[in-house]
Amino acid sequence: MVSLSTGKVIQESAILTAVVVISLTLYTFWAARRGYDFNFLGPFLFAAIMVLAVFAIIQIFFPLGRISIMIYGGLASIIFCRYIIYDTDNLIKRYSSYDEYTWAAASLYLDIINLFLSLSFFLFSSSFLAF
């Protein structure tokens, strides 16, 4: 039962990640054409990542259970969705050389991987709460 549930969670996470990345990328391109700027998100996202890091360290030493993992996965998913918007906006507007595009692609790749992992945490924890 666990392996069937794990495979389903991975499949759901992959599909959700693909849909979210495509829709957020399209939204960012649309917003860039309209003149919106997402550079203001940088400091907020950095602070949010620091809060997640502290939460993860606390979770290592004092495990709080599946609900806290589900909360962590949900919050991390929201934060990495915003990182995808922020990094895509920087890719569109800010970068101009080949090296900068390489760093931007690596940054987007990490955002997508982290979104997938946080969605997996969220869905895996919520699937075991249902049983």
TrEMBL record:
Task: Tell me the superkingdom of the source.
Answer: Eukaryota
**InterPro entries, alphabetically?**
Bax_inhibitor_1-related
Q: Does the keyword Transmembrane apply?
A: yes
Membrane topology (UniProt)? Multi-pass membrane protein
Q: Name one GO cellular component term.
A: membrane
The residues that cross the membrane are 12-32, 44-62, 69-86, 106-130
Main subcellular location: membrane
List where in the cell it is found. Membrane
Q: Which UniProt keywords apply?
A: Membrane, Transmembrane, Transmembrane helix
Q: Name one Pfam family in it.
A: Bax1-I
UniProt record similarity statement: Belongs to the BI1 family.
Protein name as catalogued: Bax inhibitor 1-related
